[in-house]
Amino acid sequence: MQDQGHRPTPALGPERAPRHKLFELVSLWRNGAPLRGHLLDLSATGALCHSDMAVATGDRLLIDAERLGVAGRVVWTGGKRFGLHFDTPLPAPVIARVVQRG
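^ thats the sequence. predicted structure below, dont judge the formating
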């Protein structure tokens, strides 16, 4: 079955980590090959990403950026956007470093 760009309904309980909107250019690595991408939002448990290169649900990616390096799995796709769930939650100081520019 093909992904129709439908995002799962987010949990509204306390388990959902706060989201921080941003627009950060990053390199996304899949199977050793770089993809150009952007982070659109970030939380301790995952990120909303954008890339002109297609990714599929289940793909394993590494985000490589000046202030962030984290691995995760694509959990949904919709057009050029996709959700990435991190293998390990990010500590608050790492999130603060990425969100605070300058």
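Residues 92-99 form the longest helix (8 residues).
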